[in-house]
Structures are given as C-alpha cells and as structure tokens.
Design goal:
This protein is of the alpha+beta class. It contains eleven helices and twelve strands. It is about 45% helix and about 20% strand. Helix 3 packs parallel to helix 8 and helix 9 crosses helix 11. The longest helix has 17 residues. The relative contact order is 0.16.
Length: about 260
Amino acid sequence: MTVGSMTSFRLPVSGREIRLRGLSGREELLLIDALALDMALALELLAGLAEDAGAADVDWPSLPVADIDVALLRLRQANCGDLVRSDVVCPAPNCGEPIEVSFSLEAYLAHHSPRRPRNIEADADPMWFRLSDGAASFRAPTGADLVAATTGRDPQGALETTCFRPAGLRGVGLKRALTALAAMAPALSEELSARCPACGSTVVVFFDARGFALRELRNQASFVYADAHLLARHYHWPEAEILALPRDRRVRYAEMLRHEVRGA
C-alpha cells in the first residue's frame, strides 16, 4: 500500500510492519556510485529509507534475506510499477524468435508467501526452528550472514555452518531442514519458464530478484545529475538541498523548467 510518498507493507518472514519513504537524490547517488549491485548495497539503501510501523529503526542486517528481497521488490514496485517485463530470444535451433516474459510483482510475491510445514517447532533460541524429531535445527540466513559468507571461499558452506545445527549436519537431516527452510523463507530468485509462441519450445530464464530491483532503481536514478544541474542553474539551490528533495518533487520541478525552456 502506498500513502503519499510512503509505502507500507508487512515483511512475510519476520512479520514486521514496514514503511519505506520515497527515494531522494542521496539514495539515487548511492545506487549510481555503487561498485556492485549486491546485498551490502541493499542493506545500505534500505537503512536510509525504512522504519517500522512504530517509527523505530529497522536493523536490516539482522533480518532474513527473504524479507530484504521482498522490501527491495516493494521499493521497485513503488518507484517503477508492478509489471516486470523482459525480452529474451528463443534458443531453439532455427528459431530465434523474441519472447516476452512478464509478470506482476504483486502476484509473484503472493505466490512466494511463507508457510510453516508440519513437524516444525520453534526452538529455544529466537529465530531458530527445529524438526519435531530433534534431528536438526535451523534459522533463515540474514543479510549479515550473506555479506559475511560472500567474503569467504565457500559461501554455501559458511551459510550451512551458521544456520544449521548440529555442526556438520549432512544427509537426510540437512535435506529435511533445507526443505522446511525453503517453505518458511522462500527464495525470491529462481528460474522462470516461458513458451515460445513460434516453435513451442520452453525457455528458462533466471530471475535475480535482488539484482533486478537494484538495477531498475539505478537505471531510474540516472537522471539525478541532469535534474540537479537544471535546478541549481535556474533556482540557485545548493546541491545538498536539491539531493535532499524527495525524488518525485525534484522531478516535478525539473519537468516544469524543461517545459518552460521548450515553450520559450
């Protein structure tokens, strides 16, 4: 739900009620200057934009990765719209027809709603769960977990060590815990399939939810320099004041000036 420049929604895993304010030029410069569209950037971006329903700060690194990716897609939805659309080429021999892959973010998020499987119980430690037969305990990886894991040589192994018990869990116990975790904190990045209308072949594409949201927001931010230049030139406002403006307001001022220039 969007009210004014605030977007409100519920994080599906932690259950926290979140309010995201609209982007300003400061967040847009953060997106433009980032060396990588990764979890570290996502955490820094959301830290400046989010509060919970009680107006408290949100410790994004401590939240599950699934919640962080939902927040990014909600931010993209509020700023770029609900529709996701991409054009791919059919890889079938002698085809090569263009295929449009499109879907609604609202429907996509609803499809990935968490659920708790049977035989899963809350553990004594906060955020931890266990199989009812005691074979394994687990928790959803957090943003901080992912950032720490990606700095090492074995990210998957680091996450398994951090998020599963007992240490060295393998085999059926690990598989059952992974299956439960996938239901309780569904990954939003996954393979999607489409059918070629020309030859009927199935085309598989990977949807990188986090990378997609950050890339779309960065592409939209590319006009911030032109807007800042125009407003500084005509209104003589300092750069810091221009960048502090909500993006929607800054764009409106800039469009008014461009309209006046075209009509002159």
